[in-house]
Every structure is written in C-alpha cells, then in structure tokens.
Amino acid sequence: MKKSTLILFAFFFSPFVLLSQNIIPLMPEMLINLSAQGDATLLINEPNTAGDPKKNGKTGTPEGNFFASYNKMYYPIQVVIDLGALHSISEIFVFNTHDIDSLFFFTGSPKNWTKNGTIYLDGYNIWESTSIGKNSRYLMIEFPSSKANISEIVLYGKALEATPIIPKRTYHKPPLFESFLGINANHNHPLAKLSCVGTVREYHNWQWDEGNDDPSYEGYTNNQFGWNPSWVKEVSPWNFDQTYSQFQLVKLDVSPCLQQSAPYMLENDGNTAWKPISKGDDPEIPSSYKEHARYMFQFSARYGSTRVPHQQLMLQSENPKISGMNLINYVENWNEPDNWWSGREAYFTPFELAAMCSADYDGHLGSLGLGYGAKTADPNIKFVMGGLANMSLEYIKAMKLWSDHFRNGSFPADVLNFHHYSNTSGGQDTNLKQAISPEDDSLKYKLAEIIEYRDRYLPGKEIWLSEFGYDTNPNSPQGVKAIGKNDVFEVQAQWLVRSYLEIAAAGVDRAHLFFFADLNSKNPNKFNSSGIVNEKWFKFQPKISWYYIYCIKNALTGYRFASEITSNHPDVNIYKFESDYDGTCLYAAWCKTSTDKKVSNYILDIQDKQGAKVLELSATERKATETDAKYDTKGNILLNLSERPILIRTSCRNSK
Prior knowledge:
The chain is α/β, with parallel strands linked by helices. It contains 15 helices and 23 strands. The strands form five sheets. Strands 1, 2, 3, 4, 5 and 6 form a six-stranded antiparallel sheet that branches. Strand 21 and strand 22 form a beta hairpin.
C-alpha cells in the first residue's frame, strides 16, 4: 500500500479509543519535518517492535534510525508531531542506539514554543524518557546535531478533543497541453525556436532591473527600477517591455523567474545567491524581506494586468511611467531556495521561504504597508514559489504549518513549484551517477503523492515541475547512453517526451524542461548538454528532441489529459487525452522500458470504427507523420510499438 493511501485509513481515529489507551498512536501523516532533511517517519515505523516500553521495560530492538544529515547548516533539526487536536501529553520514550547528545522537547505552537523536556542520550540500545506533562496539539522534537540519533519514539497521553476528519480530495481540472508544455530559457533566445513549446520559464536576475553592478547605487529605500531601458547597458540597453511584448505576439506565455539578490544588498564579499536580507535581519520574519517584496511589487505593477497610480512607481528617469502592461500571467520569486551548495546564507529553511513568500505575495497580508508584494500590485497575477531543488512534500507541509499560524491558513503562493531529475541518485544530488528513464524513476508516482496532498490540503493551487531533463553528453552524470540502435540524441528525445507524458498523467499543471540550449556540449559536467538545440555558436541548431517536442505540441494542442488506459501488457503505457473542441481523443502509446524494446501487432482495444490515424514523431519535421491505422478482423487497432511514443487520433464517441 502506498504511503498516500494510508491517509485514508490511519491518520484520524476516534478520540474515545485514545481515552482508553496510554500510548498515542502516531502515523506518518502526523509528522512535519521542519528541515525537510531525512525521513522522519523512521521515528515511528516500528511500533510492534517498540511495544510499550513504559510498561514492559526492555522491548524489541528498533533498527531504522532517523538521521537527517552530516551538514551542520541544517541543524538544529526540528520534527513536529501534529496530533490534530488538543492532547494531554504525559511523557515520551525514545530508543537510543549509540550516539551521545541531547534531545529537546517543546509544546505549544510555531508562534510560541515552550521547552518541556530534555533527554540526554548516553546509553546503548536502551529506552530513555522524559516527562512532558502538558496539554498541546503539537509536540516538537529538536535534534541539536548529527550526534542526536534515535530509532523510535513512543508517546504517552490521551486526546482531549475530537480529531478533525481528513479533507476530501478536490477535483483539479487538467490544463490544456499547450499551456502545460514548457521549457527553461533566457530572454534573448530565439522565439522561433522557443515556439516548440507553449510556455517559457525565463531566468531573470534582479540586478538587471535594479542597480546592476553600479557601486554608487543606493537602493532601498530610494529605489530606481529600470526595464525600458533596463540597468544592463554595456553593449546596447536591454528593453524588457519589448522582450515580453514579443513573447506575447508569438503566443508564448513567459513566466519570469526573478532570481538572486541585488548587489546593493550585499557586503563586499557577498554572493548574489544569498538570501535577500540585510545583515542582522531574522530570515524567519517577513519584514526582513521588504526590499525583495518591493521589487516583486514594482515588477508585477509594470507587467501584470492592473494599473497602479504613477506616484507608486519607482523608476529610473529614462523609463516611462507605465503599469498594467498585461504581458505576464505568472511571476516566480526565487530559484532553488533550498540549495545546499552555496552555504547557509543562501539556503532557506521552509519557515524562511514561507516568510519571504508571505512578504513577496501580498506584503505579509498587507502589514508591510503600501507598495510591497506582487498581489498587492496585481491581484490577478499568479504567484509562483521559487522552484525547490528537491521534490520535497515535507518542505511544503512545513511551509503550510507556518502559514496556518502566521497567515491564518492562507498559503502565500498560487503555484507549488519543484525540480526533479531522473537518475540513480534519486534527484538533484552531488553524487549523480547515471540518468534513468522517467518510468524507471517512478516519476509519475512521486508526483502523484504531491498532487494528492494538494487536492486535500491546498485545493486550487497549481503544481509545476519547472526543471527536469537529460544531457546528451554520455559522460555527464545526468547524461543518457545509447540504447540498442538508438544514439544519445534519440534516447534524450524519447525520454523527454515520455517525461512530459508521465508528468501530465500525474496531474501536474505545467512542466518546464531544462534547458533550451546547450551551454557547452563537450563539457561532461551536468547540464552543459541538456539543451534541445545546440549552442549559440552553432546557431541553436535543433536536436531530435526539439522536433519530437514540436510534434507533440502540434498534435496535442487543445487536448487535456483524461486517463490512463489499462494496456494488459507489462511493458506498455497508454494515456488518453481529450479535445476541448472537436470531439476527438488522442492516445499516447509506447514501451516504458529502456532496452530498445519492440512490441509488434499490439491490440489497442478501443473499438474505433471511424478511421483512426497514427501519428509518428518526426526527427526532421515539426509535425508528426500521419497515416491510417491498421485494424484486425475484430475492428481493433493494430500498433507496432517501441520506446518512442506514438499518438493515435480517434473519435471519442466510440472510445472507452
């Protein structure tokens, strides 16, 4: 049974059962890992082995230690147990295996934690305990260092209130495929080549709009923003009014990812990857991000859909006072805020990111004053939280906990945003070894857990996977290898198309592959050859993947994902898409293996009598090659399948 299924059966139970018991049953869904590091469910995954240590003394020996990280920047690690309602918590037992350090226990809430217990871990394979003696819905366990390791906990007490019923899943309408199909790119990439997709996530540095590298620029509070022209003027001034207008003319929905700190905010040795706060500011307080929240307001005022009074616009003198240009629908406030490679100054904990998002979203519910937050400038703009480097549901749960207590339950983002690369390491890690297909990575199922959580606890929010992809340099740790007669360019193209299809089937609203163009394809370091076109000096010559993606865009425009079709074959995937406009369906079918698998005369049992068409992806044309389907004597469509997806267009009237 999948973990997500457990929610339906295990999380909520009658308080009258608890009143008659001393041990409080703990379920995975109750744990909120405020660091999003490690698997906190290992603290409660051996209840039968743990038994009742208070009553029986020595019990079995739990084995699965919870360990977060050796990296000191994540500490203290804090894990919250949300009991769902007020409980009388009497004491807690923990099983100490070997390490020596202290554990601290807190009751109350994120707004007001009170320390109510300490355990000094100094034993070996023994239960140790402390009295809590408080009424609380929440219990927080704090691990001060990597030396604080335990393998199981048992909590004693009783419920004082009925536990609320789990919310039902809310239906979320799938997006049109052309709105779903996206890519990461720069503002000066050629629009004709970018038109292979429907949406573009544009990396956009804050300093381009304010100050750039001018050491004399004062910054906040005397801000001077510039877009037409921008602050970048070395060769010829960049004009983002013109840039975003051109995106709109070719019907590309551009969503700027406003990344990095402005240099004026940093010390002389500062790094633009650092959090946008001044020295001495508390990163868990929204007001620490006033400079950034003002930037979000000004950017959204100019390019959103709502006109703002001229006196609120803070512009360089050569910039015309314009607002409400209606050129962007989404704005993202950071890129990979959970990055670990730039140090603690750059890394956001979930509470820190929630605080910045709250300031950037609406000026922390308007408390920062006039002129702060994207939604304050344009209530219609959709606010995208900075894409997380790790596809972590725990991070979102922690942000929601912060929002429940500091924003009265209002989550400060319209889009939950993640990055994920399919490989043997399980994601974007420093020890990448080998890329794997989306199916071998169980990508759809990993995303489905996040989708279910959204449907229950954050209904209406969009979910994006705004980075995924593969390198074509086979020596890259994220590089594909040739498979059978398929070279690396063919394999990259197949896996990218299959990734899009898997992501759509999971229920994601938008997927942006990384990246549009190679940076340096001969360099074996990751992401140098992840483009679907060659480098700029090769004039962005398309790879096979560019053609395949253009083919699926042209074929599936106007369609939405409908359902997965049972294939009755262990190696075959079939997904159904339905048109909003003409009563047709498109089926995507392929072998989900990575062995150059072929399946001949596969029967697609949809009983279509209307003259189905088979669409084969082209390696040289923007539209798929279309042929009449072949049928068996019973009227079933016969297909020759491989690891390259094909599409079958039929009338929906007769399809199952």
